[in-house]
Amino acid sequence: MTVLETPKNLSSTHHPLNGKPISMQDIQQPIAADLKAFDRYFQGAMKSSHRLLSLVTRYILRQKGKRIRPTLVLLAAKTAGETTEATHRSAALVELLHTASLVHDDVVDEADRRRGLFSINALWKNKVAVLFGDFLLSKGLLLSLDYKDYRQLHLLSDAIRRMSEGELLQLEKTRHLDIDEATYLQIISDKTASLIAACLACGAASTTENEDDIQKMKSVGEKLGIAFQIRDDLFDFGTDDVGKPLGIDLQEKKMTLPLIYALKNATTSERKSILNIVRKNKKTPSDISNIQGFVHKKQGISYAQTVMMQYAHEARDMLLTFPESPARDALINLVYYTVSRHK
To answer: What is the C-alpha separation between 282 and 250, in angstroms, rounded?
Structure first.
């Protein structure tokens, strides 16, 4: 798989050379065999002799997503060296801890759906969901400790700390609606980018002891993660079905970059009027439409897209400093995919 070495535009939904759509299947092609090895590790790590745990585990394993985070681990490993058993364990560790966080998130958010299916808490209630999340967390810790993968465990543990701090900071700021751009970037860096950064760093750490390469991969992940979250936040101001309710961030009073920029460039009366709508616990479709129209008028969408592209270009440029390989090129194409995806 080949990529354009210095593309000017990362926002196209098509490959810069052959014009074909970029798909996750294409991106995962260099690691197809490694993904199968990861699946074996992941399923093996989740085994339990407890009947209820086994039942919930089987339900989880049926919900195969895009496996983006294991893909990040495996591609980073192949970019920095050659994949090993430690790489497959690292990918399994990432997926175990990420799945645990999703199960706990559904309890906190009182969500009854995950990827279109019933959530664990919807089927087995909160107590089972929390305990199952704890079970996955312990399995991940044991997987790393049993094989002395201390570096990867440290990287992932730090990411989980940052994810928790980011969530708490967002909760605190949501109450007062006083999030500026710097605070927003700190929140999404902690909530989202920290895990993506840990994925890439864990992958590199599983194949090389070159600290510069490990830290460089971590920086790529931070930038990619921020671009990923800004793209996700932009969906709230669109019109297409993207797999989550349109306007859901606005309903939950989340201050994202398009709105933050628009408010910064509004008059005092405009700002007061929009914030009064944002503060409503229940917003009508008209309320959501008014906020979206305001954000478009104040160029909030285009500004957020510019910031997103800046981070994506920086991630791409850092990846180009690694030796050319199918895995490195796949990671660059993943940057394209991130900023051009429609859901």
So the answer is: 10
Token pair of 132 as six digits: 């199952």
User: What stretch of H or E contains 113?
Assistant: strand 113-114
Helix (H, G, I), strand (E, B) or coil at 323: coil
Q: DSSP state, 174?
A: H
Report which secondary-structure segment, H or E, holds 198. helix 194-205
Task: In whole angstroms, give the CA distance from residue 340 to residue 14.
Answer: 8
DSSP SS3 for 88: helix
Q: What is the pLDDT along the chain (343 residues), one digit of tens a residue?
A: 334 333 445 444 444 434 467 788 899 999 999 998 888 888 888 888 889 989 998 888 887 777 899 999 999 999 999 999 999 999 999 999 989 988 898 898 888 887 778 889 998 999 999 999 999 999 999 989 999 999 999 999 999 999 999 999 988 888 888 889 999 999 999 999 999 999 999 999 999 999 999 999 999 999 999 999 999 999 888 755 444 555 677 888 889 999 999 999 999 999 999 999 998 888 898 999 999 999 999 999 999 999 999 999 999 999 999 999 999 999 999 999 999 887 6
Sign of CA dihedral 131, 116, 39, 191: negative
* Phi, psi values for residue 117, rounded to 5°: -115, 165
SS3 140: helix
CA nearest neighbour of 304 among 238, 213, 205: 238
Question: Could you tell me the residue ranges of all domains in the chain?
Answer: 24-340
Which residues on neighbouring strands pair with residue 113, listed in sequence order? 118
The span from the CA of 68 to the CA of 23, in Å, is 12
Element containing residue 235 per DSSP (H, E): none
Can you tell me the distance from the alpha carbon of 274 to that of 141, in angstroms, rounded to the nearest whole number? 46
* CATH number for the segment(s) 24-340: 1.10.600.10
Give the global pTM. 0.88
- Tell me how far apart the alpha carbons of residues 88 and 38 are, in angstroms, rounded to a whole number: 5
Angle (CA) 51-55-56 rounded to 5° is 120
